[in-house]
Structure formats: C-alpha cells, structure tokens
Write a structure and sequence with these properties.
The protein is α/β, with parallel strands linked by helices and 578 residues long. 65% of the residues lie in helices and 7% in strands. Strands 1, 2, 3, 4, 5 and 6 form a six-stranded mixed beta sheet that branches.
C-alpha cells in the first residue's frame, strides 16, 4: 500500500498537470474571444462572462485535480459537488452584477431604428496655441466620419453637438433629447515641438454618465499616427456598444487619405473655413484646399472639400457656373477614391443645381448613402433632390432621416420644413421654419421661407413682421435709410405692392437678397400680379437661379399660376416637362 507521502506527491503532480493543461486551454479560448470579438460582433458583456467562467473553471479544475489525484478515484463525491455548486453560485452572482451594470447601456433607439446610438461632443483644444482649435475640430470631424461609416451604429452629426457645446446641459438630458445611449468626449493636445499628438477619449453611458472606457493615445504628429487613433477609437466604440463591423467597413475606417502632414493640415483648415460659411471664410477655404493639393494632388478628400467650397459659392452668387466647377472637383476626387461618399454627394448636388440634371443625381446619392449610411448631408441633399423633382413624400422621408442624424443643424431643419411645405403639410413646415429661425437668427433662409409660407395659413401679419425684420437685417445702409415702418399699412396685399415697388426701385443697389428674380416672382404671385411674376420667373430661368431649381415644382405659393401655359413653358425650359 502506498505511503501517505507518496499519495500526496501523486496528488500534487496530478494537480500541477491538470492546472497547466487547463491554463493552456483557457489561454487559447481567451485569445480566440479577443480575436473574434470584432468580426463576430461579440458583445463586451459576453466577453466578460467568458472571462469569469474561465476563472471559475480554474477553481473547479483544481478541485477535481486534487480529489482525483489518486488513481482509481474517478467518481465525483459529495464534497466535490458542494464545492462546484458554491463556485457556480459565485459565478452567477458575478454575472448578475455585470448584467446590472450593462442595463444602463441598452440603446435608446428612435422609432424603427434599433441600432445603438452615440453622440460625440466636439474635441477640446488643449494645445498651447489657441490657433490649433481648427486641428481639434478636424480630429472631431474625422472621428465622426469613421463612426458614420459603421452601418450598425447610429451617430449624431457635428452641428447638433456644437449646439450642445455652446448650450451646455446635463448629459442625461442630451442623451434623451438625441435618442442615444452613449456619449463621447475627447480632448486634443498638439505638441509641435515634440512632433506629437495626444488624444484623450472616453465613452460614457448616456443614462448615468458613468464611464464605460477611456484611453489616452500618444502618437507622432504624422498622418498615419493620427488616423491610427481615429480608427482605433471607432473600432473600440463599435465593440463597446455592440455594433459589428463588416469587412468593408473595417477597411474604410483604417484608410489614410494622404501621406503628407502639410496637406492634411491645410485640408483641416479648409474644412473649418467651409463650416463657418461666410464669404470671407469660403474664399479662405479655396486657398487652404489649393495649398493642400499643391502638397499632394492625389489627395481625394481635398478635391471633395474644394467641391463643397464651390457649392457654397454657387449659392452665394446664384451662379450655376460654380456648381459645374464643383462637379469637376468631385469627379476628380471620385477618380482617386471611388469609395469617398462625400465626393459622390457633392457630385450629385452639383449636377442638380449646375446642370439641372433631373435623372443623373439619384445614382450618386444612393452610392453615397450606401458608402456612408450615417452621413446627414447625403440624406439631406438627397431629400432636396427628391422634392425638386416632385417626389414630395420621398423627400420628406429622406430629410427626416437627416434630421434624426443631425437634429439641430439649421440647414437640415429648414429643409425639413421645405420638404413638408412642398408635400402640402404647411402647418408642420412653418413649425420647422420657426425652429430654424431660432437656431440661426442671422441666416436669410428661414426669413425667406416664413415670408412665403405664413400667408398660406392666414398669418399675413406675421409675414409682414418677418419681411420688415429681413430688410432691417439684410438690407444695405441705403435700404435701411429709405425703409419706413409697415405698421400703418392697411392690408397684406397693399404692403406687398409697396414692398415690391421699393425693391424694384432699389434693385440695382445694396446687397438685399430679396432682390433676386425668383423671390420677386413669388412675391408678385402673392400680391396678385401674375404678369409681373412671369417676367421675373423668365429672368430667374435665364439666370439659372438655384432656388428656382430647388422649389419650382413644389412651392405652394406658386399655386395660383401653375395652370397658366406660361408656367408649363417655364418647366419645359428647365427640362421638367416634355
């Protein structure tokens, strides 16, 4: 009979053997879960559960190894069962605690959209130079761009997040208003002397404000280093919220658009200038994008940025030649990178307004949305296109999608109003125009829309009030000196006739946007002067005014003249009727 010391040695050896074998197997399982988490979309909670079970399994293995160390004792005894049951209870408690922690992370989806949603606040500029704010803004843009390319995730656009930055409120309220369960915060430190960038990012539970994960990224101030940060943040966000990445999306979020740090810096400055939208900023944007292209002429994103600058100039000058230049820049970008969604979007928009192409844009818009399903601009401009060609209900649906993605972007809010107006839902449209006016009180578009829409629902006095505000805000100094109060006028049409006389008399001077032919035409319709209205519509066609292309099919204010043969002739000249 073996001595007690021999039995102990046998048990100890068996214990070591079982332990080593288990640890080897557990390591393989652990690595497999880590590797397959992203492509298989394994949720973080499930990964943590596997880790806990592996730890519990180690203790169970130790129990069995000890009790089965002596040859011949192969059945499970009562004490073993009690120990295993106790260990399983511990594992159950741990998993329950994890589950309760994850309850706050469940997505708060908008109706019909069960994807997890995230909103990332603009990155704070922690660089010593305040002038590097453009760089922090560009980093925020690039993170949002990569998140928007993930079809299993719903991300909020930058303009809404800028509004919350300027109008701070509790995080829980932000998450509830935006319909998201996750919030992101970031800061950027650009250290030129050390040629380094540090980005700090944290993902928060929108319901409780608790941190889900956070990390500091330190990289060389190179394009590759910066884009490695963007890609890793997007990948980890997707993994944390349970949004699986397709193979195509994994490739897209890792791509770097240029190898030139100088070109990239100019590009970020150009994008920042376009966002500010003033005439001087747009002029500056051209210089930045052209400088970027001098550094790297194959920089597709810089060509796409140039296209957007031309689009803004086209609206500012009401000149379709600028839209044609936008199309050329967008096509160059697509030739270099056919997967660049923003270039397809700009090309489609330029075709619509630069060439009055009523068929070509649709394919480009659909390509852009397939490549970047969360891009609010693609849905927004596609909605404009659908309304412009008379598919009004489809236009409402598309602009509604853009509104979900960027609900506080003034242009999106205003064009949601336009889509509703053209679909005959006037009261709803007015509500959106009023909201847009509150968001952008120095932008002309909501004023113009309210002037033309208030009369349709019997609010002529409000139309006159906004008309007077418009002349005060956007008129030249000569306009303001000549303008008299409308408060004493007796009725709406009398005021319109007086206004038209004022505008016609001063049409060649100042900078008042209301002097444009298209707007004057609609005012003449409202004033009951169809002949004068057609005179201005003909001039708008000759000018190829972009507002005419956008609204001639749907604007209810033009209703009184739609049956006139002259109106059908206008449509034929525009290619909208055979």
């Amino acid at each position: 009979m073996p001595s007690p010391s021999l039995l102990r040695r046998l048990k100890e050896r068996k214990l070591v053997q079982w332990t080593l074998a288990y640890l080897a197997g557990a390591w393989v399982v652990f690595q497999a879960v880590e590797v397959m988490a992203e492509p298989w979309g394994i949720l973080p909670a499930l990964q943590r559960a596997v880790h806990i079970l592996l730890v519990v399994g180690l203790f169970i293995t130790l129990v069995f190894a000890w009790y089965h160390g002596e040859k011949g004792r192969q059945r499970v005894s009562g004490p073993e069962l009690l120990m295993v049951a106790a260990l399983l209870v511990v594992a159950g408690v741990a998993l329950t605690l994890l589950g309760s922690q994850d309850e706050g992370f469940s997505p708060v989806a908008l109706e019909g959209d069960d994807r997890p949603g995230i909103a990332v606040f603009p990155c704070e500029n922690w660089s010593p130079d305040p002038g590097d704010a453009y760089f922090a803004s560009g980093i925020h843009d690039e993170i949002l761009l990569r998140l928007s390319k993930i079809s299993g995730l719903r991300s909020i656009g930058r303009e809404s997040m800028e509004w919350y930055r300027d109008n701070p409120m509790p995080m829980r309220q932000v998450a509830q208003e935006l319909g998201v369960s996750f919030l992101g915060e970031c800061s950027v430190l650009k250290d030129v002397e050390r040629n380094q960038i540090r980005l700090t990012f944290q993902l928060l539970d929108g319901n409780t404000g608790t941190q889900i994960w956070a990390d500091n990224y330190d990289e060389d101030l190179s394009v590759r280093g910066i884009f490695d940060i963007h890609s890793d943040v997007a990948r980890r966000v997707a993994q944390a919220v349970g949004a699986a990445l397709t193979p195509e999306e994994r490739v897209r979020i890792r791509s770097a658009p240029t190898n030139s740090p100088e070109a990239y810096q100019y590009y970020l400055r150009g994008r920042e200038a376009v966002r500010r939208r003033s005439s001087s900023d747009i002029q500056g944007a051209f210089g930045f994008f052209e400088a970027a292209l001098r550094e790297d002429d194959d920089f597709a994103e810089a060509h796409a940025g140039l296209a957007d600058a031309w689009i803004h100039r086209g609206w500012e000058e009401a000149d379709t030649a600028y839209f044609r230049r936008a199309r050329e820049a967008a096509e160059r970008a697509i030739a270099m990178d056919s997967l660049l969604a923003e270039a397809h979007t700009s090309k489609a928009y330029a075709l619509l307004f630069g060439e009055w192409d009523w068929d070509g844009p649709e394919g480009s818009f659909q390509t852009a949305i397939r490549l970047d399903p969360n891009n609010p601009e693609a849905h927004h401009w596609y909605g404009e296109y659908l309304s412009a060609i008379g598919r009004f209900d489809a236009g409402v649906r598309e602009t509604s999608l853009a509104l979900e993605m960027d609900p506080l972007a003034p242009a999106v809010v205003c064009d949601q109003g336009s889509a509703l107006e053209f679909a005959g839902r006037i009261q709803e449209a007015v509500s959106f125009y009023e909201q847009c006016l509150g968001l952008a009180p120095t932008w002309w578009a909501p004023y113009a829309s309210l002037i033309l829409t208030y009369p349709l629902i019997g609010r002529e006095a409000d139309a006159l009030r906004v008309l007077e505000q418009t002349i005060q805000l956007f008129g030249s100094s000569d306009d303001l000196a000549s303008w008299e109060s409308l408060s004493e006028m007796e009725d709406f049409q009398a005021v319109l006739l007086r206004t038209l006389a004022f505008l016609e008399d001063r049409r060649g001077s100042g900078s008042l946007f209301l002097r444009k032919s298209y707007f004057l035409a609609v005012l003449h319709v409202l004033a009951g002067q169809p002949n004068e209205a057609f005179e201005h519509l003909e001039a708008a066609v000759n000018e190829r005014h972009p507002a005419l292309a956008k609204t001639v099919m749907g604007r209810p204010s033009l209703g009184p003249i739609r049956d006139d043969p002259r109106f059908r002739q206008i449509l034929r000249r525009m290619g909208l009727e055979g």
